Amino acid sequence: RPPPAYLFGTIHVPYTRVWDFIPDNSKAAFHASSSVYFELDLTDPYTISGLASCQMLPHGENLQDVLPRELYRRLKRPLDYIKLMLPHWMTPDQRGKGLYADYLFNAIAGNWERKRPVWVMLMVNSLTETDIRSRGVPVLDLYLAQEAERMKKTTGAVERVEEQCHPLNGLNFSQV
């Protein structure tokens, strides 16, 4: 229909991993569009703080209170190992940009003992050496949002934080 509307699905990976494989007609459609709407507005500080707070356990609980003792220990050991290995996994480019291992670990896993189990599971899945080496490169969604802002396009979101958080937070322990 005039004007045309496009739907482009993204994945939450560093844009540099997929950018070269995105067809030119998709890139042209993005550039020609005057408005761009994303899943969430990752450039909005309220969205980011909302995502952070929805991941926390209620009423000051700790993960140690809700996980069986052995499972908690099986989770803590690799996190301690990752914290130890992180300086070795970082790239010279990351160091050149002023990223420090402690800062990076805290940005990814900080306060993990206060998070709900489902969010800890997702966090652990992103703590691989490959993922660490790509930190500092925006995920595709964020890259496109930043480009849209730079090009002065109208931007927005089709979901609210609650619409993403409540389904995940509604999973029971055995589902997680």
Question: What would you say this structure looks like, in words?
Answer:
By secondary structure, this protein is mainly alpha-helical. It has one domain (15-168). Helices cover 55% and strands 5% of the residues. Strands 1-2 form a two-stranded parallel ribbon. Helix 3 (45-54) runs parallel beside helix 11 (161-169).
Structural features:
5% strand, 176 residues, 55% helix, mainly alpha
Helix percent reads: 40-55%
Query: Order of strands across the widest beta sheet?
Result: 1-2
Q: Count of DSSP E strands?
A: 2
Broad shape: globular
Question: Helix/strand/pairing class, anyone?
Answer: mainly alpha
- Strand percent estimate: under 5%
Cα-atom radius of gyration: 19 Å
Q: What is the rounded distance between the termini?
A: 43 Å
Q: How many individual helices?
A: 11
Average of pLDDT:
90
The description of the largest β-sheet is: 2 strands, parallel
The secondary-structure element order is HHEHHHHHHHHEH
Q: How many separate domains make up the residues? A: 1
Stretches where pLDDT is under 50 for at least 5 consecutive residues are none
Enzyme class: hydrolase
EC number: 3.4.-.-
GO molecular function: metal ion binding; metalloendopeptidase activity; Wnt-protein binding
Pfam families: TraB_PrgY_gumN (PF01963)
